[in-house]
Amino acid sequence: MQSILSLQGISKAYGPIQALKNVSFDVPPGSVFGILGPNGSGKTTLLGTVLDVLKADSGNYNWLDNTPSEKARQQIGSLLETPNFYHYMSAFDNLEISASIKQRGMDDRLRVLQLVNLLERKDSKFQTFSLGMKQRLAIAAALLGNPKVLVLDEPTNGLDPAGIAEIRELIRQLNAGGMTIIMASHLLDEVEKVCTHVAILKKGDLLLSGPVDEVLHNEDQIEVRAADMNLLLQTVKELPGIGNIMQQNNTLQISITDGLTTTKLNEYLFSKGIVASHLSLKKKSLESRFMELTS
Amino acid sequence: MKQLMAIEWLKIKKYRTFWTIMLLFGACVLLWNLGVTTGVLRLGGDGINLLGSSNSFGGIWDTVTYYTSNFVLVPAIFIIIGITNEYQFRTNRQNVIDGWTRLQFFHAKWYMMKSLALTVTLFVAVMGLVIGLITGASFAYIGDNIEKLVYMLILCANYFGFALMISVFVKRSGLAIGILMLYCMIIEMMLHFFFLFKLKLPFLDLLLPLQSSDELLPSSTFNALLKTGKFGYQPPTLTYAIVSCIWICIYYLIARRRLMRSDW
User: Fold this and answer.
1) Does residue B228 belong to the interface with chain A, where contact is any CB pair within 8 Å?
2) Is the ipTM of this complex over 0.90?
3) CATH number of the domain that residue A255 is part of
4) Lesser CB count within 10 Å: N end or C end of chain B?
């Protein structure tokens, strides 16, 4: 299989607002693919489009090697935006409707309710559930029939910290079992912890896509100070493997990209007659990398 | 079709509002028709009863279908609630996400509408038989006016299809019910009387979606009154039946186009 999902030039506008602009990328099989972006970047619109609840203005998409869209959706477990269930029906009965539409066996309902810790509430009406329980039920519905692909839009919304950890662990386990997971989130931490691939959206534009290590690679930074800051700056600029250099509060912040360590830098400065009065390694946060990309 | 209807049934069977509305409808229709056909409910004096009473199947079918047609707005309201609920709780989206096509979702609702029309017609048929037994009508003449049951089915499908079409456009139950009531009880009624009494052209009722079906099951008292006036050409009942079916097809096409092309 070449790709689980392939998007080619998807564009979508809501009146004057261009929600998606010519977005193209492929989701490789077996990946946990994060769609990342700030609020209003077009993540949910993108998922809504590939799940056929929204109509793209142009472009097309293919699921599972050109499987017809509705057949593909029966093999995909999806949670889009909010949990959508019949409020007057129990969790168990709601899953019966989902299973019937997916053409899956009814006997799987107990398994998925067990997976999300809702078994004891299976006969409670959906309208009596808390937000976190509704979210769990939506995940249970998505897991019916052990689908090949799971599409999750902000899957940890409404969950408490323990619930968030459980869902992350569940995602890891499912992915380890071979399931491809496509997940939209604005939570960097979530993406960093579970995703193997990522696409970053900003105001409908696809900024980057690819493996997380490449797209959101963590650039380390070295902070250094010396008595003569001008000489320090000139000397550091001549050193190979140096990225951006910023001077803040009488300190140089040096982005390093090519195996440069504090030891090597110290030796180099010493050989040039500069004694560093302060030298420290700082990990650049994923958040600052994301802010760089999206701001 | 069978699978779509089975899933719609799953949605309906545990919905208390559905049972409440249908029970209310059934009870009102049954009591009213029993009251009228047995002569318990009367309007008028000196031996004249404007509501009519029946002791033959010809009269029973005429009476029960006409009076039931005045109550069909009640199940039409359920059609609106059933469809707008899907929008309100976004379960229409979930059905598609789970693997239905948009057309399957639409057909599920359309079949549900047709099934309800058939159920109401069957209910009227059974009610007519029971009333026939009670009033001692001769079963030898059970076929007299029995085509009224087919008209009943067309009328129900027309009202319910109209309600379905409004629902997919308006998406909010209160507003959709308001529009249905306003159109049915005021706008169309005014146009009907304008065509009839001002223009004296009753055939223009064919242009009114719901009135074209109402003409299939007219009040026998009102019909008698009409015959005393001078009005223009009145088409035969078959014309009203055909035009009603055309209106139902128009609702189908408009609602389908809306659901296929819009965002959900």
Assistant:
1) no
2) no
3) 3.30.70.100
4) N
